[in-house]
Amino acid sequence: MAPLMTVAPTAFAADSPSGSVVMWPTLTPAGDQPGPAPLHKATEAEQGVYARSQELDATLRDAAQDLGYTLHVTDTGPVPGKMRDSDMIDRAAHEGAAGAEAGTWVVSPRLEVAGDNSFVVRIVAVAPKSRELRVRVEVVKGSDVAVRGLVMLRDLLSPAAAAQAAAIERERARVDESARAGLIAPLRSQGRAVLAINGALFGGYVGYSVQRASGNDDPRVLYPLLALGAGIGIGSALLVSEEWDVGTGDAWFLAGGAWWGAGAGLLIANGRDTQPFSDRYSWGAAGGVIGLTLATVALTRSKADEGDAVLTHSGGGLGLVLGGLSEMAIRGTQPDVTPNYGAGIGAAIGVVGAGTLASFVRVSPSRVMLVDLGLGVGALAAAASASPLLFETPVSERRARAFALITGAGTLVGGGIAWFLTRNMPREPAVSRTAPRSNTGMSVTPTGGVIGSSATPTGIVPAYGVGLTGRF
Asked: Where are the membrane-spanning stretches (predicted)?
């Protein structure tokens, strides 16, 4: 195996995965436009490219080491005729770092004159044992070639990019193993299982509602209806997922419309004093069907992701709480009396409003849950501060209204603060390092584990520790 040069970890290595990298010399042309010249290493005769290539080579080699990778210093790059993309993939599958599994990162910078003292900079990278090319391309001024090349390399070899590449390779290996075993994971309608489970439960509930609405308590009627409803629900879910590509977000979005609609119908029926008790199940079934229909109509306009589904469920829960508090404030209801009617109306408005909003905006699930946490903390803090209003017995309508209003206001304030603090959260977990970032706020993440390594006569010894990373 070729000897390696081990470098001490730097500030960039704290978060980096251990690994080795082969840095090919800068080749030209970049490949951005087809041309007669084959891919080759720049010569001194190519004065416009040669000097910039030398500068880019030195910068990228230093940057790879700064990122914590072990550099193959004796690998001088490919020979003529072995510079194709397939050659990079083959090279990435062999000769990893000493003591590590086979495989190494392979990076091939490309440079081409674009005219007017501008250059096309293309960085191509292949992860260890990967079959995927990761590419960054930019057109920059001659004086910025090295600087932009460094930023592009960090984009490709950053810890987030390395983790993503490793996850892709693990998934590919799993699919290959499944294929060899004759089992292939379904790539279409990933939400099939979620949709089938919710379809079975909702179908069983509809069957139960039919039996309860009829006033018949005979179990010989109940169990066949439950089985029939669950069977229809499962069958409908499987047919829908076979005909259309139903993702996980789509399935939970449909479930939110159905279950929150059913809950709203039940609560509204319970809150109507003139409504017969046996009819509340029919109201629940009707509400579920209406909610499912509205969710289906929304999905015909655009698909829903996990963030949309979480937002829809969050809207139903928020509407439930605020609707109940609103009824308490209007009627002066005692805290021990359940405000069913207001809670049902609020849940219906909340789920419909959030589902409509989800069709027009995109938000990450983590941000929605953090805002929900802020709503809950705000509600608890406001209820605790207003609890002295409930000390008298019996509680007057005026005090009950004040308690409901203070709790509702605290809920909204807590949610508003959480929304403001999470305004700069990215929608996706992986964000390009070249993307503009706000200079306001602070983002700190605790880290722990391997933070570096040391070379010893017996090999590389990891160094363990804890720390903080982020923007201060």
From this structure: 221-239, 251-269, 281-299, 341-361, 368-390, 402-421
Asked if 93 and 126 touch (Cβ cutoff 8 Å), the reply is: no
pTM to 2 decimals?
0.53
Confidence of residue 439 (pLDDT cuts 50, 70, 90): very low
> CA-CA distance, 292 to 199, in Å (whole number)?
11
- Which two three-digit tokens encode residue 259? 């279950």
What's the alpha-carbon Rg for the chain, to the nearest Å?
31
